[in-house]
Design brief:
Number of strands of chain A: 10
Largest sheet of chain B: none
Oligomer: heterodimer
Structural class of chain B: mainly alpha
CATH architecture of the largest domain in chain B: Orthogonal Bundle
Strand order of the largest sheet of chain A: 6-7-8-3-9-10
CATH topology of the largest domain in chain B: MetI-like fold
Number of domains of chain A: 1
Strand content of chain A: 25-35%
Largest sheet of chain A: 6 strands, mixed
Order of helices and strands of chain A: EEEHEEEHHHHEHEHEEH
CATH topology of chain A: Rossmann fold
Helix content of chain A: 25-40%
Number of domains of chain B: 2
């Protein structure tokens, strides 16, 4: 479970020669993500969506307010978190398999078990690769793969250490529509299988409505939560539901909530 | 992947290098022709044919001096690899060290190395030691800068992948910093290896009684210009060979950076 209580974040930005200004990225944001649920944050560019993920992962600390994960205050990066970014950011000198195993070289208890139980972990990585439809690509180098394939690898890497929380930062933003829709169903089945808590940031309202249980809508900077929408379609969802009247209607009203400056 | 037949590989290699070979041959042809057409005397600009002839006639003595140059170069360059890599990693690892040491390095690098040779001679006497030291001094800077810049420019996103898992600075350095800086390191070795030759030869021309630089200075004081050019030819051959060695290393070890 993720719990943000009255979180604000300010940072100092250089606005010119010897000129500094305080930028308020988040203004008194409170939001809750239930354990095992799929939650999205939507909002215009620069509203601090990514900042929220960084706060949850412990990469950033709030100026005021608290961030709790599973009831504990976040004060440093947590290894129970897996993260996937808009860019796949795979390491080009490692094979696909070695890229997926990377978190295990850092996160305990896997780190000390990796040497002795390597086969077990490789088996797990290969199973994840099968789940995302990349069987037989384990020994390829990342740059031999298309953008969509790289993003699948990045998802496997985010999941290899069985994180309780998966943070997705516009994970499909750089992909074409068809690849994106395909990966929606991939991420849905991964989530249904692992039952981890997912917090996703996205621009794509259709994506948010299709994948999530709950959607937080944010205002332009400074980011505030200006609305919550629930998406109650039965699981597993099929892409066809995005063309039903009720879905389109909900999508429309969601769009109406987004304010673009 | 099916194996490519050797004949195809050979013809592909030939295709790749043909333009370079043509340019080289053309360069020497123009040189040779212009000395004939403009009737340039040998003691001003000897034609390549004469240079090669002189090179062949003095082969033993040239090999002996080249060996001395090669020795100074390689030892100096070897030291600069170890020192440059270590300093580069330290400078790139810590932004404090970077800010503290970098200006001094730049200042040091702007000093013309020729100006240092006489000082080295006062300290260490005439001969191989100043040549080796000059080779080292002139070649370590590009190594330090390349390695340091590679470490300092790691994409924040790549860093975040590991940081979000709770990785320490040291772990990020080992898992990402070092592998990522290798292509920059090998790239700098190609530049540094040729610079090391320059350093050794400069020092030999100023203060030495052996080495290609000494040979050339001695020859030019006798107006034996063809021998000077023979020396130049040998130096560039050695430099190119060393360059090729490191280019091959680079392809082998960091092929992923050349996709």
């Amino acid at each position: 479970m993720i719990d943000l209580r009255n979180v604000s974040l300010e940072y100092i930005s250089k606005s010119g020669f010897r000129q500094y200004s305080v930028v308020k990225a988040l203004d008194n944001v409170s939001l809750r993500v239930e354990g095992g649920s799929f939650t999205s944050i939507v909002g215009p560019s620069g509203c601090g969506k990514t900042t929220i993920l960084k706060l949850v992962s412990g990469l950033l600390r709030p100026t005021s307010g608290e961030v709790y994960v599973n009831g504990k205050k976040v004060e440093k990066p947590l290894s129970i978190v897996g993260m996937a970014f808009q860019n796949p950011v795979l390491l080009p000198w490692r094979s696909v398999l070695q890229n997926i195993l990377l978190p295990l070289e850092v996160v305990e208890p896997h780190k000390s078990r990796l040497e002795s139980h390597r086969d077990e972990y490789v088996e797990k990585a290969l199973r994840l690769l099968r789940l995302v439809g990349l069987e037989g690509f384990a020994n390829k180098k990342p740059w031999e793969l298309s953008g969509g394939m790289q993003q699948r690898v990045s998802l496997c890497r985010a999941l290899i250490h069985d994180p309780e929380i998966l943070l997705l930062d516009e994970p499909f933003g750089a992909l074409d529509l068809f690849t994106r829709e395909e990966l929606w169903s991939v991420i849905q089945s991964l989530w249904l299988e692992t039952k981890c808590t997912v917090l996703m940031v996205t621009h794509d309202l259709r994506e948010a409505l299709y994948l999530s249980d709950k959607i937080y809508v944010m205002s332009p900077r400074p980011g505030r939560v200006i609305g919550v929408v629930e998406s109650k379609y039965p699981r597993p969802r099929n892409i066809d539901i995005t063309y039903t009247d009720s879905f389109v209607e909900q999508l429309h009203s969601l769009r109406g909530m987004i304010q673009v400056r | 992947m099916p194996k490519t037949p050797l004949t195809v590989v050979l013809s592909n290699t030939l295709k790749e290098y043909t333009p370079a070979i043509i340019v080289f041959l053309g360069f020497f042809a123009i040189w040779e022709l212009s000395t004939i057409v403009f009737n340039i005397p040998e003691f001003i600009l000897p034609p390549p044919s004469k240079t090669i002839q002189v090179l062949y006639q003095n082969l033993n003595i040239i090999i002996q001096h080249s060996y001395a140059t090669l020795q100074s170069t390689l030892i100096g360059f070897g030291v600069s690899i170890v020192f440059g890599l270590a300093l580069g990693l330290a400078v790139g690892y810590s932004s404090i060290v970077y800010k503290a040491v970098y200006p001094l390095l730049v200042a040091f690098n702007t000093i013309p190395k020729v100006a240092i040779v006489p000082i080295l001679v006062i300290w260490f006497g005439v001969g191989k030691v100043p040549a080796t030291l000059t080779a080292f001094l002139i070649s370590f800077f590009p190594i330090v800068v390349n390695v340091a810049v590679a470490l300092a420019t790691i994409e924040p996103e790549i860093r975040d992948v590991l940081r979000s898992l709770g990785a320490s600075k040291g772990q990020i350095f080992i898992k990402i910093g070092i592998p990522r800086s290798l292509p920059y390191f090998f790239g700098s070795l190609k530049v540094a290896s040729t610079l090391a030759f320059v350093g050794a030869v400069i020092s030999e021309t100023v203060a030495s009684n052996e080495g290609t630089g000494y040979l050339m200075i001695a020859a030019s004081s006798r107006f034996d210009v063809p021998l000077v050019f023979a020396g130049l030819l040998v130096i560039s051959l050695l430099g190119v060979s060393l360059f090729i060695v490191f280019a091959l290393f680079e392809r082998r070890l960091v092929g992923w950076a050349y996709r």
